[in-house]
């Protein structure tokens, strides 16, 4: 069974975009996953194909209409569709590797990309959308966020990554940032590769990597070491 992504967007031309190349692109061609980019505007009902309107209560910008979005969602995800419905949103729960793994183990995802000021709250409530953030900053639209999420998911699908082991040693997979990497040349601008890594002593190498990972995590991301780390 392959992972099926349906993306609702005002810019379907942005897909597959970067995901049409490299590992994700090859997996897309091989049918390991599928991607359907749906134009939200096709579900507008008026002559001008309007998808947004001014915010109730006043203020700057425009809001995406609940009725148009509901039609688009119902088309992409009819009753019985087991895929989670996600809304890319800076107000959402920050995306984590744990959630990425869960998504990769499931049947796919229906992903709504916001634009303008965002979407009418009523469609979020009525269609049970799960808001997902890719970080504490504001993008101009949900499309780059959807590409980020799908990239993270697709690389975990069976057969996509050449070396499956490397996936498990990655940053976040064991609650730590990853240790530093080195490769040839043996010396670069007067900086040698740490001795332990060329010692051939695999136990010592593993201990060194673990210690470096813990040090980096303590310095840069102490939140990952807390009793209740982000999940
Ligand atoms: N007015 C909103 C921001 C709207 S940005 C606010 O202050 O919360 C327009 C769209 O870009 C959003 O609807 C969302 O789909 C997307 N977006 C922006 N930043 C994002 C982020 N950090 N993570 C996920 N999606 C984001």
TrEMBL record:
This entry's Enzyme Commission designation comes to 2.1.1.228
A Gene Ontology biological process term: methylation
Complex formation: Homodimer.
| CDD domains, per database record | TrmD-like
Taxonomy, top ranks, is: Bacteria, Pseudomonadati, Pseudomonadota, Alphaproteobacteria, Hyphomicrobiales
Give UniProt keywords alphabetically.
Cytoplasm, Methyltransferase, S-adenosyl-L-methionine, Transferase, tRNA processing
List the molecular function annotations (GO) for this entry.
Answer: tRNA (guanine(37)-N1)-methyltransferase activity
Q: Which family does it belong to?
A: Belongs to the RNA methyltransferase TrmD family.
Query: Which species is listed as the source?
Result: Mesorhizobium abyssinicae
- Function summary: Specifically methylates guanosine-37 in various tRNAs.
Q: By what name is this protein known?
A: tRNA (guanine-N(1)-)-methyltransferase
Compartments in which it is found: Cytoplasm
The gene for this chain is trmD
What is the catalytic activity of this protein?
A: guanosine(37) in tRNA + S-adenosyl-L-methionine = N(1)-methylguanosine(37) in tRNA + S-adenosyl-L-homocysteine + H(+)
In which residues is S-adenosyl-L-methionine bound?
A: 114, 134-139
Give residue ranges for domain tRNA methyltransferase TRMD/TRM10-type. Answer: 6-226
Is Translocase given among the entry's keywords? no
